[in-house]
User: What shape does this take?
Amino acid sequence: MKSTVKSLLIAAALTGLPFAGSMANAPSKDEVVAVVKKAVAYYKANGKDKALAEFNNKDGQFAKGEDYVDVHDLSGVCLAHPTSPEVVGTSRLEQKDLNGKYWIKDIIEETKKGTTSGWTGYVRKNPVSGRMQDKLAYWELHDGLIFKAGLYIN
Assistant: This one.
């Protein structure tokens, strides 16, 4: 009987390990802001072409599991996305999340009001867990580009 309980406890613990691992790697809000600021600084220091190449690198310094930077222009075209390379070069202006939110369009509307940074929430597939989750993303406008990173919150 004791070995059955022990086996069940071990199985339960092992089942939770992948989830615990993805949670342990999830960035904090402060880390999200810091990585966006680091990306903007990298862009300023290295220029657009080199920076976009680095931001698109799935193994680069701006792509660590759930913690990655993507970049869009003010017409909604994705210029860099290390975890979803298929969207690079496409307009995401009319892309909605599961709740009907146009998150890129919303950010662009904020920039038209003079806002140069902020937070937005939407639903997105977590590249680590593979699940659709709520995401909280921080963005900054620099040189006509939106630099964005986020964290998955559920």
